[in-house]
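Support request from a user on the community tier.

User writes: "When I paste my structure tokens into the form, the page sometimes reloads and wipes my input. The last time it worked, I copied everything first. Here is what I submitted, just in case something in the input itself triggers the reload:"
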């Protein structure tokens, strides 16, 4: 895992170079960036940033505050975290989302942007720092994160929670940018 700092005004970008089993057995090169934006119109600005919302622009800073979470999609991997938090069985619709068509590339080839339901944002924002180690341990028990050490995923989990708190405090939504 690597942490990149974007500027003194923007929180660090956490990059999850994790989930060896997912990377080896899943789709190669799937990029998942989580970011926050006021609304779909603002999120659609991502289309003008080749490489996604966290890629540094001409000024050397990323366009959005976010977390690089390669291989951690919102439906399965994040959805299973939400299932653990809520104490419910995972379903593909648990981590509700909606495609933001104005922010997507070719709908068949991507990249794609989805807005994640605010209740998921709020669940992540409510996780206390004291709960992170145990939650990271439980989360690495899912098949998709098999072989990932909890100490590797905990900083990513912490960064996602912090991003969700900043989004909630600013009245913003969480978005996921995904590219093959």
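"...and here is what came back when it finally went through:"
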């Amino acid at each position: 895992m690597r942490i990149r700092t974007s500027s003194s005004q923007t929180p660090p970008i956490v990059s999850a170079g994790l989930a060896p089993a997912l990377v080896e057995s899943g789709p190669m090169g799937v990029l998942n960036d989580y970011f926050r934006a006021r609304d779909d119109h603002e999120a659609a600005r991502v289309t003008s940033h080749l490489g996604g919302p966290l890629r540094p622009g001409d000024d050397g800073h990323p366009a959005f505050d976010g977390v690089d979470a390669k291989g951690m999609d919102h439906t399965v991997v994040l959805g299973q975290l939400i299932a653990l938090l809520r104490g419910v069985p995972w379903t593909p619709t648990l981590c509700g989302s909606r495609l933001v068509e104005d922010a997507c590339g070719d709908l068949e080839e991507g990249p794609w942007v989805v807005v994640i339901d605010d209740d998921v944002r709020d669940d992540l924002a409510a996780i206390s720092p004291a709960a992170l180690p145990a939650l990271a341990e439980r989360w690495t028990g899912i098949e998709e994160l098999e072989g990932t050490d909890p100490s590797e995923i905990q900083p990513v989990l912490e960064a996602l929670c912090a991003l969700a708190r900043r989004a909630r405090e600013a009245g913003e939504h969480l978005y996921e940018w995904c590219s093959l």
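Agent notes: The reload is a front-end session timeout and is unrelated to the input. The helical segments are 20-25, 40-43, 77-86, 118-125, 132-139, 150-170. The mean pLDDT is 84. Escalated to web team.
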